[in-house]
């Protein structure tokens, strides 16, 4: 068996209620390695042409990588792959946290979910074993509550839980998968896919460590990473989280503002990493064994917008989508809206992008108070933002329309088609294509729609010359240029 793996993939047939372990050979692992590549393999193998993304024939894969569970920073990641109910194409969604490493420790390299359960269930995977358990009592509850309930039922506080939230149960199209109540596979509607299978959650726990080729060398590499992070290219993320990007993106005209009508926002520093550090930041957090510790944990105990540290804190994409996209510079309101998204299990990018679209329509007179149920959807209105996120999470009133995403809402209402900022139904992440042209290319051609995780960002080309040279990329180009070298950059990185 290839080092770093257990050589075991768990297959769960929810229709039949059966669980089987596949033991692929080394060639399989060397070909697909893990993550979205492995997920794509199972999607193509098991999903028939024209399958309904929300039907039992869709195949949902949860895959980790060869280094997941080792002490190398940035590798406790899980890729969730399925046919997306948003793009209706093959799609993958990424998240970090402790769940990915714990899945590896449970004795499996990935889980493939087939079919649909006749009743609500959750999957419990532990030390090479797996079972389906009744999830009826977990329905309709917020994510932290569900996590607590599963840990209490199984009597182990260290269990990691990935779950669909109440939004997915109600049918919100851009529903997410949430682990640790604040790490999110947000993109592509993967929460709705899992909910459509009557699968509420996947709980993992274990003590299995796959064999490594050179444990000492890996430990030395991990120590080197931890010792050098403060002088590395990601030092800013350690200090300010990804919110460090707010002001730098704004400075180059790359901060999407007022539904993408501008790349700069007046008073952008009010929602930036420094302001968070000075005001609502309670502590920082990490994914398993990551020295960067970019995750923010915020707390607000008074005022109109509260924030519970259990739900983490907003990072760059969420601050932009729920903030600058909507012209909002009220950081507590953004943190509260981010918490609501984590409680309900909603993709913050799609949610903010769709609300920004609706605000634009309202400002232009295409929507009225009658349409919105009395919510004055003006750019800059924190109150409207929070009301709308709740309405989407509950899928009630105008939230039912917006819970379909901006492109489908425009089609349903017959308005604002030219104000939609999405590809294949997926709202753009917070990187203006005008100033990131390789990213723009992939926004256009990626099967699942606009995605900021499918290639390196433009700024990395010049900043990480050694790493890029290893990929054969040795000719950095200006960020706002698109030429053959930038196409190579998009492809190879
Ligand atoms: S802490 Fe930040 S940098 Fe480290 S793995 Fe998690 S998301 Fe990535």
Written overview of the protein:
This protein is of the alpha+beta class. The protein has three domains: 9-205, Aldehyde Ferredoxin Oxidoreductase,  A, domain 1 (4-Layer Sandwich); 230-420, Aldehyde Ferredoxin Oxidoreductase Protein, subunit A, domain 2, CATH 1.10.569.10; 433-492, no CATH class. The chain is built from 21 helices and 16 strands. Strands 2-1-6-3-4-5 form a six-stranded mixed sheet, with helices on both faces. Strands 8-7-12-9-10-11 form a six-stranded mixed sheet. The chain has a two-stranded antiparallel sheet with strand order 13-14. A hairpin with a 3-residue loop joins strand 10 (177-179) and strand 11 (183-185). The model has no long low-confidence stretch (mean pLDDT 96). The structure holds iron/sulfur cluster (SF4). Iron/sulfur cluster is lined by residues 73-74, 76, 96, 286-287, 290, 292-295.
Termini gap: 28 Å
Q: How many helix segments? A: 21
Q: Uncertain regions: pLDDT < 50 for 5+ in a row?
A: none
The whole-number mean of residue pLDDT values reads 96
**Architecture of the largest domain in CATH?**
4-Layer Sandwich
Q: Report the bound ligands by name, code or SMILES.
A: iron/sulfur cluster
Structural class: alpha+beta
The structural domain count equals 3
**Neighbour order of strands in the largest sheet:** 2-1-6-3-4-5
Within CATH, the superfamily of the largest domain carries the name: Aldehyde ferredoxin oxidoreductase, N-terminal domain
